[in-house]
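cron nightly-structures :: item 1 of 1
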Amino acid sequence: MQEEYIKWYSPNLNRDMDMLTFGHAGQPVILFPTSKGRYYENKDFKLIDSAAHYVNTGRVKIYCPDSIDELSLYNKDIPPAERIRNHMWYDKMIFEEVVSRARYETHYNKITIAGCSFGGYHAANFAFRHPWLVNHMFSMSGAFDIRDQLDGFYNDDVYYNNPVDFLPNDNHSALWEMDIVLGTTDRDICRGYNEHLSEILSRKGIHHLLDMKHNAEHDWPVWRQMFPEYLSRI
């Protein structure tokens, strides 16, 4: 499998960033790590290996950027307003630096975006904020409400980065064109988040799949099952 390590200075975050890419061609897939995870996490836990067929045959090229969760929504040492502000800078970095690179390198106009656990939040939040850029969104055991991370603080920045809040009022036509999969399990600690988001999408008439796996925990084995299944939809 072709693998490349990329390090660059991010003007949006004013710091160096790291990323791994896998593959030589195909639909670009931005794959987020779990909460406070690093850019190599999805490789280390063999999520990339589960998608080897799609990577090696040139159907997808996977981009695994680093996270800054420990500096944003998981940073209890700074005020909540700064946490959400830092998260917004991260979203801007993904938009301007990672997605633009992926589109340029693969010559695809639209991207697929995915993630497990809190990476599923990142995937859904980015997809619903920028739906004209995304043709597939695969969330595996995602959580879609960040209010618990903000100690009761709430403002417009929180609203526009909390899918269960802004999505009911968002009527961008591209939302109805996106392929959306919400993967969860019967024993998933995030099952309720997925069922709630599915209800919101259903009320809006947005087609999606709520994929409920059975006898599985909120953990890597079921995500390694889900990821190649969902990539087959591309």
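cron nightly-structures :: done
Residues 3-231 form a domain with the Rossmann fold fold (CATH 3.40.50.1820).
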